[in-house]
Amino acid sequence: MVKSSSSSSETADVQSVLEAVYKSAKRFVGRGKVATYIPALARVPKEKFGMAVVAVDGSEAVVGDAEEAFSIQSISKVFSLLLAMRLRDQELWKRVGREPSGNPFNSLVQLEYEKGVPRNPFINAGAHITTDCIVVGNDDPKQAILAEVRALAGNPAIDFDMEVAESEREHGYRNAAIANFLKANGNLESEVDDVLDVYFHQCSIAMSCRDLARAGSFLANRGVDVATGRRIATERKTRRINALMATCGLYDAVGSFAFHVGVPAKSGVGGGMLAIIPGEMAVAVWSPGLDAQGNSYVGVKALELFTAKIGRSIY
Ligand code: GLU
To answer: pTM value?
Structure first.
């Protein structure tokens, strides 16, 4: 249950809030452009729109296409960061920064003048560092990521979309350039091809809004998985992941998102978004039409409507 913003004594059911938001945000469906850099993403219908909420009390609410699996793309960077922080913690922060980049997520320019130390773990270069930690720390790094995501979502059917993974590899010239540049600067321990292989697979993970909200619920619940009560991360690490989402999670639109929506979130070019209202709930949205910054057009609007309706912002 969430308190309505209209009156603190009045409580509104999450499901009805979600339905109202869905109805209102539906008018934006059709806006934006679906990612076209690989065919498997280019053909996803722009009309898709789903939302899911998992609250820390275990209650769930879904609306629209919330059970349909989509390509999580860069949202996977949250899960690879979690695994890398578990494996390395302090040492990780010598290899990757914690500042917004102010540059496109796949930029090479900044990496060059900052000598191979990526600005943050949510741009591609930074994610190559977290993926590298997972490659070094696991015999089967792809399965390690998949197993973590499946366990977090409580859904063993979650899988890589092999067509997407293969397409990412075929079109992955910029990612290959970034990984090679990191290696040339001594900031990649494993082989470039091994890091890229795992990175392309993690981007291809297909899951639904419900899966995603469940998987992100520990971020809303001080590091404890809502469904199982299992500790996923310490409170400190959880706060840090949320802080990075708030400052670096939405490409070049973090400032505007903080201004209009006001909660930590991570987006992906598949049109998915995972937003966290700390202490309360994880919210997942999917709609594939992207705005000029690469975030889901409808997703941003829906999250703005949702946080406004329940009167929440972390600021
Ligand atoms: N697979 C994409 C890339 O690495 C991820 C893009 C994204 O969602 O930000 O270019």
So the answer is: 0.95
